Amino acid sequence: MHQEMKKFTFLAIFLLAASALFSQKPLNQSLRADEEVRVEMMTSMGKITLLLYNDTPRHRDNFIKLVNDRFYDNVLFHRVIDRFMIQAGDPNSKTANPGQMLGDGSLGYTIQAEFVPKHIHKRGALCAARQGDQVNPRKESSSCQFYIAQGQVWSEAELGMMEARFGKKFTPEQREVYTTVGGTPHLDGDYTVFGEVVEGMDVVDRIAAVKRDKMDRPIEDVRIISVKVIK
After folding, report:
1. Cβ partners under 8 Å of residue 222, min gap 6
2. How many Å apart are CA 75 and CA 82, to the nearest integer?
């Protein structure tokens, strides 16, 4: 009788676990192919609204999950460089001491790169940070760290020199963007772009312009207060 009870208990646990596993839905199952997802990021310097791209689904779904888990609440912008970009998402930054070196924190996994040619590093692009090619030749993205491109406007001559130096080739459409809107073109094809700023680029500019230390960390903390999906 005791042995039969053990068998029954094991079977019940197995069935419950299997039911839970197969009842789980993909993060994007409720999204239509043409449905836009927007994220509202409240920072200590103002609000930034982001549009997530549907054709980079791994990055979109991972970002949505972290937002829903409230992972980004209280995270710092730990690296900012004016006319280049602002970076955040290091979990170690939530409780970092002043002057503490940041940038190595992760959640223990990476995301396969999703390079889409039409998504370039224009001003306001939302991009995934990653480790360098020496240890990450597949250019896989960080589980949680991201940056928003600020950049600058470039001349045709400067884009030509960039093509020669980095072995890139910009299309006429890309040249139009980089010579009018601006951005960080030398990063194209090396980091996944998975969204863009649709409101609050003035906030990005203010964050990028703050005083920073020799590690490019703001002297006075710039913090993400809260993030939520507002699709």
Report:
1. 43, 44, 45, 76, 77, 80, 207, 210
2. 20
**Residue 167: how many CB atoms within 10 A of its CB?**
8
CB 44 within 8 A of CB 223: yes
d(CA 120, CA 106): 25
* Residue 83 in tokens: 């006319």
Of the candidates 199, 166, 203, 206, the residue with the CA atom closest to the CA atom of residue 184 = 166
Q: Mean per-residue pLDDT for 100-104?
A: 95
Is 65:226 a contact under the CB 8 Å cutoff? no
pTM value?
0.85
Q: How many CA atoms lie within 13 A of 69 on its CB side?
A: 11
Kindly state the greatest CA–CA separation across the chain: 85
- Whether residue 19 has pLDDT greater than 60: no
Instruction: Measure the CA–CA gap between 35 and 77, rounded to whole angstroms.
Output: 29
pLDDT for 35 equals 77
CA distance 32 to 130: 29
